[in-house]
Structure formats: structure tokens, C-alpha cells
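Example record

The entry below shows one chain as it appears in the dataset: sequence first, then C-alpha cells.
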Amino acid sequence: MAHRDLRSWLQSVEEMGELRRVSGAHWDLEIGYLTEAARQKPDGPALLFDDIPGYPRGYRVLTCPVRTPSRVGLTLGLPTNYSTKQLIQVLREKVADWNATFQQFAAQQVEFGPVLDNVHQGADVDLLEFPAPKWHQKDGGRYIGTGDTVVTRDPETGAVNLGTYRIMVHDRRSAGLNIEPGRHGRINLEKWHDRGQACPVLAVLGMDPLLFRVAAMPLPYGMDEYLYAGAIQGEPVRVITEPVTGLPMPADAEVVIAGWCRPGVTRMEGPFGEALGYYASKARDEPVLEVEAVYHRNEPILLGSPPSRPPNESSYFYALIESALLHNALTAAGVPDVVAVWAPEGMTRQIMVVSVKQRYPGHARQAAILASQLPAGSAYGGRYVIVVDEDIDPTNTQDVLWALGTRSDPATGIDIQRRTRGSGLDPMVRRPAPRDTLFNSRAIIDACKPFEWKAEFAEPIEFDPELLERVQAKWPI
């Protein structure tokens, strides 16, 4: 079922019994702390905050949208009763379908939509109209953009890009836009600035969670995420050409801000509690988004997805998508008999686990090297790739640790890659650090039985599943 907007999605979540309404929580830390409490539970609900002190009733904040398998299924138009393993498998197949058909789903241009219920321009713009939370205790300010979709355009090709980047409110008409080097939105920004021109920017701050999640997917540069979202939902995304920037904005969005990032105009942004669980990037000068127009629905809903120490609100969705994408990428690269892939929740790039059925000498190492450098894998800020045999379930941490402790030899099973692509969010980078020095290293760990004598390897203890089931049925414990 396609959900054109956030409100129809919310209705379905409520019918599933997975929505909790919270009245009276303050934007200053209380919303952030309740969000943290909910996402620490594997089956935690989505939270819809209303009656936020200092704001009109109906100005709301939604958090934890895709924390459970059922809500991921709902968002992607998949069954809502799938397990994690089932979701990964079906996503592998669906990604291939979406890649093959996305060009058939060009965004549909329309003249009107609910996002035009309220239009503010020029002096009427006030970002403080919205209850942007202060999410973490030591954040440098209030972040209106965490579950957002930032729209930019390549000035050379005209290709539209959707990305997810943090946005801190500076004042009524300006915000800090933090985009890491190499991200597609940053590339577009720098291309405009290299021409001496301001970069047009839209920030969608409340929308169908599908659009938010597609914006965060590692799709190839130049691919229009609007089309990809259309392929997933089975119908084109409806967009309106925003008059200030000329960029397409979702007609059914909750809140959209439009403006410019001008060359050389920066302001101190941060610190911010980040996805690895640290305030790693500190406060630093970042581009300023000068807001010229604000559009929002009546009783608007901000979508919040603040990062935190893993597992966090976004980590489950990322784990599913990254696992499916890397599995497909390894297969496409020619690695045979990849049995399963898992990007542990919250560590989706820092740690990757690949299970293979070894077919030839070097098979395990080949899979590890590719996983460490493929864009769908650990190419950005990765740290460890662990390869295990086909009898090891990568999603089972105890299984993986058992393989590490019994099948890997530190002297021969670990290779180190040096001067690989790092991340500005890495807490192991000592500050201050210029962006052109962001290197790191990778460890490839072969935790498979030695190929040349794997047939002689000690036989593992196993339990016949049928007998185990009969015994448990006879003597329930």
C-alpha cells in the first residue's frame, strides 16, 4: 500500500497498535529523552508529541518511525509480519526491481498540494514557529532537521539529489547545514560555490518516512531519489516547483523551507550527538542556509530522527538496507556463494559480517576486500569486515564471536588496509582535523575454517532441530 503522506502512514501505524501519543513534553530535552527511552526497546512504538509547551496545539513532532520490522514493512510497502532475515531477503529482490524500474516513475508535477496550506516569505519567515527539539544534553542548539530530506541540484547536469543532513536553527531566518565531504549534497553545494554562485536548497522537515529513508540510502551520484521513492511506492511522488529556488518540493509534505547557501557564508554549528554515540565533530563553521520561504500544512508535524549511541532510531532500517545492498553488490561483483550479510545495528559501516560457502583458496579474503571498499559496504568510514563460514548466522552476535574465537588466527587471519576513506564523525579522529586529512584504516578478519584443511576441521556440536523441537514440546521449559 502506498502512503502518499505522513498522515496516512500514521493512521496505519495507529491501526497496527504501534503509535503512542504524548502530550505536554517539552522541546528542551524531554522529547529527546522520551525518544531515547522508546528506541531502546526492540518493539518500541512511534511517538507523536503534541501540546508542546510554548507552541500551538497541533504543532507536533514524530519520532521513532521505523524502529520495528512491521513499520519498516509498512513504509516500504512490504508485509508487516516479516522477521529481520525475511526483510533482508525480500529487500535483496526488491532492490533489483526498483533499480530496473525507477526511471518509469518520474516525479509528477502538480500545481497545488497540502504543503501550500500556509506560505511565509521574506520578513514573515520564522523558523522558531516550529517546536524544533534540543535532542541531547550537550547539543549546541535546537535541531529542526534530523529526520529531513534536503533537496539540491547539480548545476552542471541539472540532476536533483535528496539527502539527509542535520540542520541547526540559528535564528528566525537562518540555519546551519552540516554535510560531510563526499556526500552528494556537499558535492552539489561545492559545484555552485566553485562558480561563485549561491546554492539553492530545500529542506523537507516532515514527510512520508519513505522519502526520508530513500534520501539516506547510498544510491549512485546523479540518481534522482524522487524516482526511486516512486518505484518503491508504485506511483510517482507528487511535487510542486518551489518558486524561490526552482527545486521540486513534495506536494504532500508537512514542512518545507527554501533558501540559499552562499559562498563563504558560514557560522558555528554543533556540537551534536552523532550516530556513533559521541559528540565527535565538535562545533565548527558550516554553511548557512538563508531561508527565504517556509511552507507548511495546517497543524504541521516535524519528523525527528536524532542519532544516538547505537542502536538508535535509524540503525535498524540502515542495517536492513545496507545488508541487502552489500549482499547484492558482492554477488554483482562476481563473488559466488555469498550466503548472508549483516551490518550490525548501529555499526552499519564500521562493522560488516559476510558469510560465504568457501569454494576456492582466497574466496573468503576476496569477499572481505570487496566488502571493505564497495560503496554499498564499508567504503566510507568502515573499520572491520569479518568473513565467516556458511554455518554461522551473521545476525547472531554470539555465533560471530564463536567463529572469531575458534576459527581465526590473529597472525594469519587479519589484514590491515591503510589510508582508506575516513569520516568526519569518527571519534578516533583527533580534533581539529582538516577535511583533507580524513583517512582511516580497515581490518579484514578471516574467521573461516582454513580452506586447505577445512574438511579436517574439528566437527562442531550440533543438535537435530526436529528432535530438539520434539523434546521441547514434551517438556516445555
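Notes for this example: DSSP finds twelve helices and 22 strands in the chain. Residues 84-101 form the longest helix (18 residues).
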